[in-house]
Amino acid sequence: MTSARLMLGNGLAKDLAADTARRSEDFHQRAGRRPCLATVLVGDDPASVTYVRMKQNRCRQAGIESRHVALPDTTSTEELVAALTALSEDPEVDGILLQHPVPAQIDERAAFEAIAAGKDVDGVTMHSFAAMAFGLPGYDSCTPGGIMRLLDHHGVDPAGRHAVVIGRSPILGKPVAMLLLARDATVTVCHSKTQDLPAIVRTADIVVAAVGRPEFVRGDWLKPGAVVVDAGYNEGNVGDVAFDEAMSRADLVTPVPGGVGPMTISVLLDQTVRAAFEHAGLG
Ligand code: NAP
User: Fold this and answer.
1) In this protein, which residues make up the domain named Tetrahydrofolate dehydrogenase/cyclohydrolase NAD(P)-binding (predicted)?
2) For a FRET experiment, which of 4, 185, 245, 258 has its CA 20 to 30 Å from that of 202?
3) Does the annotation flag 168 for ligand binding?
């Protein structure tokens, strides 16, 4: 039985982070300050606290200053919008990350839109989505941006190929579909109301699984030789694709962990340093 090649993200994410650290130091020398990422966390959900801490640690390693704004879980939309507006107007802040998800009483879209487009290094605003959709310069949603870099690094050109994206969330499925379309893939976006999903996936040259259900995509759904990107991350380090089955059918497969996952924070840091250069007019 043949076995697919692995599309690993660890090394690529490390190389990107090393390049970001070099550019961050160059910015420090030229601007007289370090690039600064503001993280905003509403409430104290343990997973979100861990994610924010990981991002702050990675900032430190890359020579990026991080500023943290912690708000109580009773925060209103107006209060969160005010905090994000203040960061948007602060000349010392280059990038802003609002940790997702926010408590249910908050209008998350209104909060995201309070982030200035030039500081949206997490790629969550409508402005950033439009830039991804039109293939114009802007900040990518970090996981979708990481997926595109993984594909490029492994020599997968989406042009003219049928890409099937399973999932349509604003942070993953929809933006990755736009990035693939901007690179001339023929894109089908599937979701929970899609009829006969396996038949659609069988026509895909590139499959992106962004569902949030362990081992949801089965090997016999895959066209032999397909490229399989598993963006899922479920309890117990399990992806959205049945890994062993995919390995015996596909050409390239991202493992979980070690595939898409490591790319996300590296893209965030890369985009933060890019924003710093742009704010300082150092291009
Ligand atoms: P989400 O917001 O829950 O979206 C899940 C999507 O899957 C929805 O669009 C939903 O369709 C669709 N879906 C659910 N059941 C389905 C079914 N039976 N058939 C077809 N589609 C179905 O999740 P998300 O935030 O996009 O995350 C998806 C996965 O990626 C999760 O495992 C998450 O942990 C992972 N993730 C990883 C990273 C990273 O690696 N750094 C970052 C973000 C997310 P409807 O729209 O119709 O409900």
Assistant:
1) 141-277
2) 258
3) yes
State the chain's mean pLDDT as an integer: 97
**Three-class DSSP labels, the chain:** CCCCEECCCHHHHHHHHHHHHHHHHHHHHHHCCCCEEEEEEECCCHHHHHHHHHHHHHHHHCCCEEEEEEECCCCCHHHHHHHHHHHHHCCCCCEEEECCCCCCCCCHHHHHHCCCHHHCCCCCCHHHHHHHHHCCCCCCCHHHHHHHHHHHHCCCCCCCCEEEEECCCCCCHHHHHHHHHHCCCEEEEECCCCCCHHHHHCCCCEEEECCCCCCCECHHHCCCCCEEEECCCECCCECCECHHHHHCCCCEECCCCCCCHHHHHHHHHHHHHHHHHHHCCCC
What separation in Å is there between the alpha carbon of 209 and the centre of ligand 1?
A: 8
169 marked as part of a ligand binding site: yes
pLDDT band with cut points at 50, 70 and 90 for residue 1: low
Residue nearest to atom 22 of ligand 1 (CA): 192
209: in domain: yes
Q: Which atom in ligand 1 lies closest to the alpha carbon of residue 211?
A: 7
Domain range holding 192? 141-262
56 lines ligand 1 (CB under 6 A): no
Active site residues: 55, 99, 122
Provide mean pLDDT across the span 210-225. Answer: 98
Same domain, 54 and 98: yes
The pTM (predicted TM-score) of the whole model is 0.97
- 111/160 same-domain check: no
For the residues 90-115, what does the mean pLDDT come to?
A: 97
